[in-house]
Amino acid sequence: MPGKDPARSKRLTAELWSPRINGAATARDRVVVLVDAARAHLPADDPMWAPLADQLAKYLRAAGFGS
Prior knowledge:
The protein is an all-alpha fold. The chain has three helices and no strands. The model has no long low-confidence stretch (mean pLDDT 91).
């Protein structure tokens, strides 16, 4: 039995998410789709999560969230 084809898997993933990302009507909608894609494809311990959380928290604090 042949193994997985990583190139095909990557292409299918792109085909699945691309219409959702490109079809987002607003920047907010696009961010929601991108975060959903990241949650679906990145592990919880991926190093991207910490700086993303820090940056979003910093922005929200500056915008008055939680004050």
